[in-house]
Design brief:
The complex is a heterodimer of chains A (about 120) and B (about 270). Chain A has about 120 residues and is of the alpha/beta class. Chain A has one domain (about 5-115): Transcription Regulator spoIIAA (2-Layer Sandwich), CATH 3.30.750. Chain A is about 40% helix and about 30% strand. Chain A has a 5-stranded mixed beta sheet. In chain A, helix 1 (about 30-40) runs parallel beside helix 2 (about 60-75). The longest helix of chain A is centred in the middle third of the chain and has 16 residues, at about 60-75. Chain B has helices at about 15-25, 85-95, 185-215, 245-260; strands at about 60-65, 70-80, 105-110, 120-125, 130-140, 145-150, 155-170, 170-180, 220-230. Chain B has one domain (about 45-230, about 240-255): 2-Layer Sandwich (Alpha-D-Glucose-1,6-Bisphosphate, Chain A, domain 4). In chain B, about 25% of the residues lie in helices and about 30% in strands. Chain B has 4 helices and 9 strands. In chain B, a hairpin with a 2-residue loop joins strand 7 (about 155-170) and strand 8. The longest helix of chain B is centred in the C-terminal third of the chain and has 29 residues, at about 185-215. The chains are: A alpha/beta (about 120), B alpha+beta (about 270). Chains A and B meet through strand 3, helix 2 and helix 3 of A and helix 1, strand 1, strand 6 and strand 7 of B.
Chain lengths: ~120, ~270
């Protein structure tokens, strides 16, 4: 049974956190772009944390979507990090060389503690 | 199209699934897409195949869109096949006959078995003036409704091409979607000076040929181009060292000399 991708956006310290659930595939484009727009509204978020802890499937189209988000963020001089990837998807980030450009943390707490401000 | 050997796999799908099971033992079940992704390779391996020069692939690293130099583009080429063909049929046909749909003058020497994760295919691409650009692609991902190719260092662009099919109210649509940056400054100039146009024609002709094969000969190809990132990544300007166009030209020019070297195969 396909689980549609959903995204929840909130801010921790100076970082915007996008928590994703379900399947990140071609159908996730609208969700991911809307979440990005919401996360950067106001322009404050210098760093975006993409949390994949509740994601159970990513295909190659989904990886391309993540790259698009990364490109948008880089063009706006924002950093992007990832958290909560399973061992399998960590390997996929290595294969696709996404991990060269997105720092990957084991879990959301670790990511936030590393990238957010002292208040986090 | 002549192919002489099987796929060069870094690891088999079974080995990939085994490694994933090992990595996640005791914590999670094997991911359902484990066999659809290629295993990680540091550098590509390639063996000679008939019909292509086969240079500029072995030893090269893979390059995704973030490793390239030029502006980042997302180009989507789409064709509607109508209700008679299912997405699975369309992709199975595309995988099985992939080289046959390419425009004349270009060669894709892949595995005899079609398109499978981890395969390395060798390419000779017509770039005008009788020059062939020798490069390759790596099959990054493949399932029943899509497959993705990734380019190596020296290819015209750093990126991925995803071929997919999906069903909507109008029937099945097939598309090729390229996410790319020109690999180096020379390629970026070439893309600006007509390269993008040539690429658009290339994929439109490919989709038209696929539609013709599947019994939909006159469907129009819709093209959508989006510049995802307008910035050029000057720190990757050094990618020009691997430029397969330059190397292919040199290989063409020096071929008569190298063929005369003792110990070289001349046939």
């Amino acid at each position: 049974m396909k689980r549609t991708c959903t995204a929840t956006v909130h801010e921790v310290g100076g970082a915007a956190v996008i928590e994703l659930t379900g399947e990140v595939d071609g159908g996730a484009a609208g969700t991911l772009n809307a979440a990005y727009d919401q996360a950067v509204t106001g322009g404050a978020a210098g760093t975006l944390v993409l949390d994949f802890a509740a994601v159970d499937y990513i295909n190659s189209t989904g990886i391309a979507l993540i790259v698009s988000v990364l490109a948008r963020a880089r063009s706006e001089r924002r950093a992007v990090v990832a958290s909560g990837l399973s061992a399998h998807y960590r390997e996929i980030f290595d294969i696709t060389r996404l991990s060269d450009f997105i720092e990957v943390f084991a879990d959301l707490d670790t990511a936030v503690s590393q990238v957010a401000g002292p208040a986090a | 199209m002549a192919e002489t050997t099987g796929p060069e796999r870094a690891r088999s799908a079974e080995q990939i699934e085994l490694s994933v099971r090992e990595a996640t033992a005791g914590t999670a079940a094997t991911p359902r897409d484990a066999g659809r992704w290629a295993a990680k390779v540091d550098r590509l391996d390639a063996v000679a195949r008939d019909g292509v020069r086969g240079t500029n692939v072995a030893g090269r690293r893979l390059t995704g869109p973030v490793q390239g130099f030029g502006k980042m583009w997302q180009k989507t080429y789409r064709l509607s096949l109508g209700p008679q063909v299912t997405p699975e049929q369309a992709i199975a046909t595309w995988k099985a006959h992939f080289p046959e749909f390419w425009p004349a003058g270009n060669r894709f020497a892949g595995a005899l078995t079609g398109i499978s994760p981890g395969d390395v295919a060798l390419l000779d691409l017509a770039v005008g003036g009788g020059v062939k650009l020798s490069t390759g692609v790596f099959v990054l991902y493949a399932d029943e409704e899509s497959f993705t190719l990734m380019t190596p260092q020296g290819h015209m662009f750093a990126g991925w091409i995803t071929f997919s099919a999906e069903r909507d109210e109008a029937g099945t649509g097939v598309q090729a979607q390229v996410l790319m940056r020109a690999n180096d400054p020379l390629y970026e100039l070439g893309m600006m000076a007509g390269g993008h146009r040539k690429e658009d024609v290339f994929w439109a002709q490919t989709l038209t040929a696929l539609g013709h094969y599947l019994g939909v000969p006159d469907a129009p190809v819709q093209t959508r181009t989006v510049c995802v990132d307008t910035r050029r990544q000057w720190r990757h300007a050094g990618n020009v060292w691997h430029n397969s166009m330059v190397r292919s030209l040199l290989q063409t020019v020096t071929a008569p000399v190298t063929a005369l070297r003792p110990g070289r195969r001349t046939g």
